[in-house]
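Q: How would the structure tokens look for this protein?
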Amino acid sequence: MPGAKDRMREKKMKNQPRNVTYTSSGRGAGRGQGSQVWVRGHQAGGHSYSQDLPKYITASFFAKARAAEVNAMLKAVSKPAGSCHVFNALPKHMRRRAMSHDTKRLPIRLREGAQRLAERSQRAPDQQKKPVPKSRSRRARRRHGNLLLEFNRRQKKNRWLETHIWHSKRFHMRKTWSFCVPLTPTAKSFRASYRAMNTHALLQDLSYFCCLELRGSEDQILRALARLTNKQTGRTFAAVSCLSGARQGILQLYKADRFPQGALGPAEFLWRPRAPDASLRQLWIWLHPALKQEVLSELLLVCGCSQVASVCEDLHPEVDPAGRKRKRDEGDTGPPSKRLLGDGTRPAGAPVCWESTDTHITI
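A: Here is the predicted structure in token form.
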């Protein structure tokens, strides 16, 4: 590894040429005749130049060789290092900040070149210069409407949870499964969380979980989903306590007719309570985003569904706390202020439906 002196010397000699070639013609013998090459430093192979004096030299060839070296040295010295400004050619102790815009402060030998550079920069057309972006004030950036636009722009690739702003101030966030998910807290809150879980209540935002809805006859849905579960692992979709819709169930899913092999993962489900005059049932299944594609492919297999080109209608319109449908203003024709994106496995917008002509099940 080269030392400090070697690095300093290389920095000083970086503009010096590695070799200088000068050609000569004529008859003669001795050093300096013919095509000669002057190489800086040591020769290749680690051998130094011979220190023996030549027996004789030819003055013309010797002068040409020295002239080539002097021209190369002058060319390297006149070339400024780094910036192309003329005042950088001065030694450091003679440089002044005012020289960059006042050419009269430069030495006379450098004023002409500095004047040419100044005229060239003034003649440059305005359209070639990069426009300086106007930065809005912090007060304008913090307005509610501008904040929503900025938040929606930052959600183009990864969707935020409803509690994202609260979590981002207290947790390390990770962009995964097309969501921004809180990973670990920044503070030491393990004891407080354990105490709250034992004595009070502990809430966790799991809104990044994917929800699949099945609609159809209850018998057809249970017959199709029975191929993905088994009674030996516990509760199934046909559990009496969950079939009425009063309780939420948790079970383990497997690939179709592959139990006890081919495990997919845990899932939570909830039946919608029976309507008085309705013959169809609705079942919601919540899955981790990492399991969605595998479970969805198995559901399409057991239900015999095929993808529909059109999107399905929303069966549950937005309602206010009083139970009435929420109406938008008459003049509000644009999109809502907060745009909700998809879960990353499909485009944003209405949910996609799969239907079966045999079992009449819609996913």
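The two ends are 68 Å apart (CA to CA).

Residues 59-78 form the longest helix (20 residues).

Upvote if useful.
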